[in-house]
Amino acid sequence: MRYILFFFLSFSFFISNGQTTQGPKNGAVIGFPITSHDFGDIIQGDKVSFVFKYKNTGTEPLIINEVLTTCGCTATEWSKTPLAPGEIGSLSASFNSEGKMGRQNKVITILSNATNNAATISLVCNVLPSANSTK
Fold first, then answer.
1. Is residue 45 part of a domain?
2. Residue 4 falls within a domain, yes or no?
3. pLDDT 10s digit of each residue in the chain, 135 long?
4. Whose CA is closest to 69, among 110, 115, 97, 19?
5. Residue 15, SS3?
6. Cβ neighbours of 19 (radius 10 Å)
7. Domain that holds residue 102
8. How many domains is the chain built from?
């Protein structure tokens, strides 16, 4: 009996999910194929950057209202113009490792009119001491 119930619930979940993935969702939908970039080891004081691509997979124009960072060491740039359905945009994120040490994970939150608001991406690295630093 448990197997029948499990099969029924699994099948119901599969059917309901299939209905939502057959076409684009109504409204804007933001999708990032890459949500995290790891720079590996960098030297304290290095400034690194990465460009995240995103796509509007919805049916309405996507408007990014605000991009929030976890500290002043992280900066972002993005297009302020609406992104039409099917178009690809880019968000440039940079990290300044001055005064940082060890493993860093800088989360960036993207606030928009998307139905799946808010989206997050991150920059990751391991900051090593510079040759000039004292122990």
1. yes
2. no
3. 444 433 333 434 333 334 344 556 689 999 999 999 999 999 999 999 999 999 999 999 999 999 999 999 999 999 999 999 999 999 999 999 999 999 999 999 999 999 998 999 999 999 999 877 655
4. 110
5. helix
6. 8
7. 25-128
8. 1
